[in-house]
Amino acid sequence: MRVDPADRALAVAGAMVRPIVYVGLALPAVIIVAAAFTAGDSLRFPPEGFSLRWFQAALASGPFMGALWTSTQLACIATVISLALGLGAAFAIDRYEFRGRGAFRTLTLSPLVVPMVVLGLGLLQFLSWLRLNQTFVGLLAGHVLITLPYVVRTLSASLILFDRNLEQAAANLRASPWRVLRRITLPLLLPAIVSATVFAFVTSFGNITLSVFLGTSRSITLPVQIFTYVEHSYDPVLAAVSALVILVTLVLIIVVEKLVGVEKVA
Amino acid sequence: MSGVAMAGERPAVRVAGGNRGGEGQPPVVSLRGVAKVYGSFVAVDALSLDVRQGELLCLLGPSGCGKTTTLSMVAGFVEPSAGTVLIAGQDVTELPPYKRDTGMVFQSYALFPHMTVSANVAFGLENLGVPKPERAKRVEEVLALVELDHLAGRFPRELSGGQQQRVALARALALRPAVLLLDEPFSNLDAQLRVRLREELRRLIDSIDITTLFVTHDQDEALVLSDRIVVMNKGRIEQIGTPQEIYEQPATRFVAEFIGSCSVLEGSVRAGEFVTRGGMRLPVPGAGDTAVEQALMVVRPEQVKPATGAGRVPAFAAHVESSSYYGAMTRLRLTVTGEPLLMEAHFPGSKRPVAGDDISVEIDPSGIRLIPAAQG
Q1: Displacement of CA A138 from its chain's centroid (Å)
Q2: Nearest CA distance, A260 vs chain B (angstrom)
Q3: Of A212, B21, B199, B269, which sits 20 to 30 A from B88 (CA to CA)?
Q4: How far apart are the C-alpha atoms of A138 and A215, rounded to whole Å?
Q5: Is-contact B114 A187, C-beta < 8 A?
Q6: Is A183 within 8 Å of B123 when comparing Cβ atoms?
């Protein structure tokens, strides 16, 4: 078979780009994790010697552990609310004809388009008008807002591909609408739901801009804590905290993979 | 579809066990003036028909004729714009699908991909609240009926198309519905399998004696399987009849041309003869003195035969335009007195005519069919 020169050029380009992407994605994490095991007093790569003392310091640190707990709590609650709202919104957009459906679809995705700083500023104004500024509820509302687009997007894509004949077949087999939803629709949407959950959780967990605007002194999230810490000191405890976060994320992904299989989620 | 297959499946060699659902049986499904309108498009137009107890009734027509919409209104997936749907004497027009006593086989089979074969079949029984031991027994029975008991633990994606179709059938039959609904169940199978499976399906349906409403656009399928055929066009019924009636006595030009191949000649009836525009004269048995200004005559290709010279029926000089060899028979496109005529016959040995030949043919008058032009 003859090889198209354009295909050849693309294949060569792909082969060259691939290692750059792998290294670019993995290297920062590798450097941080390695640096966390240093025995020295400064954040440096390669690390000087080996010790676990910065991990001990991180785990003993009240501000970091408090922030980790806040972030985890916030991301979990925001994800659950976002899933509930997003599931409803995705079904409405996919299945019902209503006035302003296109506008509604655009609106649910708009937090992706509006710059985060603008969103944070706007929310700050809005929440103080509602007297919800500087509260956990206000922070939570902001996080629901930024995770919602990922949920709606992921579930909509899955719903478009969903074979409605399966629901009709179930109804024909005497399943009430509630049973159809529970036995057919939701189980078949499970990979998309898991995928949306991971997206939402990671988005909330890693967000810094919105949390800076909406956070309170009693609810400082981990990214904000790391960010403010870096402003006045730069020691390996940061690397240890980051390594812990990477570990938690890895565990999450492995659990998800065991539950549904990552190839189905992607 | 090859000509051989068509010739082999004419009503004369039906596998079917004759008319089981006879007249006088109570209707299981009744449609009374049922219509479905989408905006300005009339999908189904004031349609009335009965599916009798035990019969296999087929809705036949080209795509877009409203046959699938009609089936969906029986199952309850589509709400009629007007009219009444009755199942087993009960008005179900307002009832949702899950409260109707129907079992449907979908065109795509719609097997639940996350359930095994036996879980698929058990699903309906679970919804009805059939207790577990009884459920397991029924699933086993119905899977044995379609000869799939050995694949009970497989998932749908691990089955062939034909096996998937049988699972879908078993799933629908497990509930022992009042009526079995089949939506183009053979369209996803290859031609050879299709022919074999429809014979099996007919045998199965006969053996459990279930009332069946069947939708297809394939005329061979309809002729082979049905007790009665409803020919539909543009949301209306063109004709209802047994396969033989539909084939041999088409009521309209549409029916004649849709079921099997044929030549339709235009002309008039005078003094017991049909005279075509080009001047071909054909005796019309039993026409008497009736005169019809404009009429259509349907001539099936197998009624056109090489002239015997016996003189009982008139012979015509025909010019062969094209000749296609199909093995069991040869299909010829002829021109007789300037009009096109289709012929199918077996020419033994090397006597097969080729394009450009001039031959002599006669038309068997016993099966020709006159249609008043107004109905064409």
Answers
A1: 19
A2: 12
A3: B199
A4: 8
A5: yes
A6: yes
- Predicted TM-score (pTM) of this structure: 0.80
- Model confidence at A123: pLDDT above 80: yes
B16 pLDDT above the threshold of 80: no
Task: Measure CB to CB from residue A172 to each of B103, B113, B114 and give the nearest one.
Answer: B103
Listed in sequence order, the residues at least 6 apart from B358 whose beta carbon sits closer than 8 Å to its beta carbon are B317, B318, B319, B320
CA distance A228 to A244: 18
CA of B53 to nearest chain A CA: how many angstroms apart? 21
Q: Give the one of B97, B113, B172 whose C-beta lies nearest to A171's C-beta.
A: B97
Distance from the Cα of B118 to chain A's closest Cα (Å) equals 14
SS3 per residue for A193-245? HHHHHHHHHHHHHHCCHHHHHHCECCECCHHHHHHHHHHHCCCCHHHHHHHHH
DSSP string, B273-317: EEEETT--EEE-TT-TT--EEEEEEEE-GGGEEE--S-SSS-EEE
Contact A169 B110 (CB under 8 A): yes
How far the first Cα of chain A sits from its last, in Å, is 33
Phi, psi of A135 (to 5 degrees): -125, 160
The confidence score (pLDDT) of residue B270 equals 83
The C-alpha atoms of residue B233 and residue B42 are separated, in whole angstroms, by 12
Tell me if B75 and A172 make a contact (CB, 8 A cut-off).
Answer: yes
Inter-chain residue contact A173 with B112, CB threshold 8 Å: no
Position B316, amino acid:
F
This complex has an ipTM of: 0.82
Torsion angle of the four alpha carbons B232, B238, B241, B247, in this order, in degrees rounded to the nearest 10: -90
Nearest CA among B185, B212, B178, B169 for reference residue B56: B212
* CA–CA min distance A159, chain B (Å): 16
Q: Which two tokens stand for residue A114?
A: 């509006």
CA distance A96 to chain B (A): 16
pLDDT of residue B375: 53
* Mean pLDDT computed over every residue of chain A: 87
- Count CB pairs under 8 A between chains A and B: 61
**Subunit contact B110:A173, Cβ cutoff 8 A:** no
Tens digits of residue pLDDT in B276-317: 888 888 887 776 677 778 888 889 898 898 888 777 778 888
Q: What is the pLDDT of residue A260?
A: 67
Sheet of strand B358-363, all strands in order from the earlier edge strand to the far edge: B304-306, B358-363, B315-325, B330-336, B339-345
